[in-house]
Design goal:
This protein is of the alpha+beta class. It is 33% helix and 31% strand. It is globular, with a radius of gyration of 19 Å.
């Protein structure tokens, strides 16, 4: 019998190098949900063991009760969930200038401050629930991720600053030829939350994207990141679907 679900399992090479453990990744879209069964999950586990993986993360788009029951029976442990939004940039979009702080692209003098801010900004991430590594190592993972995205020519890292101090940042990827953008990571200094900085950062990226002929922006955030969800709702992002994250530990 052909095992179709296990064919979707891939080795996450970057995460594996960083955590010094072989980490597999399995993403099941809503059009692939029919492939999920108890026997298929056993086949995924068998292949992961055969390829000497330590962990496998599994993400189900648009999960339902049947899927979640099979996941539990197959030995998967839930470690989080997310919501996915999309925004179509209006042709006449205009970004009002910020009065209290500046929104500009990150400079080489600001990147260290942005990385420092990233240290403990993403504790809602499912990575902290999976047991890949101690908390301080996962904190560093996010810092390295921000620095790598800053160095990537297909990314945009915006910072909100006041009097030289970095108050928050938003880093996004950009597919200029495909006219698509994706917001990856956003963080605001705890002392300055509630001031509308997150909203202004998102508006800043929308303006940057519009100037680079990008027409659509996608973003995913954790299901319990209520502050970010409120920003996307306020800016009329359209909710597409939710997803659930699971993992299996093999060693």
């Amino acid at each position: 019998m052909e095992r179709k679900l296990s064919k979707l399992l891939v080795l996450d090479e970057w995460d594996s190098r960083f955590f010094k453990k072989r980490i597999g990744k399995l993403k099941v879209t809503h059009t692939q949900k029919h492939l999920v069964s108890f026997s298929e999950l056993l086949a995924v586990r068998a292949r992961a063991k055969l390829e000497n993986m330590n962990f496998v993360t599994v993400r189900f788009d648009k999960p339902d009760a049947r899927l979640e029951k099979i996941a539990r029976r197959g030995g998967l442990r839930k470690c989080g969930g997310g919501v996915n939004f999309i925004y179509k940039i209006p042709v006449n979009f205009k970004n009002a200038p910020s009065v209290d702080f500046k929104i500009k692209e990150c400079t080489s003098q600001q990147i260290s401050s942005a990385c420092l801010l990233a240290k403990d900004a993403f504790r809602l991430s499912f990575l902290y629930s999976c047991g890949f590594a101690p908390q301080n190592v996962i904190d560093r993972y996010h810092q390295v991720w921000v620095r790598n995205l800053y160095a990537n020519k297909n990314s945009c890292l915006l910072v909100a600053s006041r009097q030289g101090n970095v108050l928050g940042f938003l880093v996004s990827s950009a597919d200029i030829q495909g006219h698509r953008g994706k917001m990856m990571l956003m963080a605001v200094n705890k002392r300055y939350r509630g001031m509308g900085i997150g909203k202004r950062l998102v508006e800043g990226f929308i303006a940057w994207a519009a100037a680079h002929k990008i027409s659509r922006i996608a973003v995913r955030t954790q299901e319990d990141n209520y502050a970010a969800i409120a920003v996307y709702n306020k800016l009329k992002f359209r909710l597409l679907y939710s997803d659930s994250d699971y993992y299996m530990r093999l060693k």
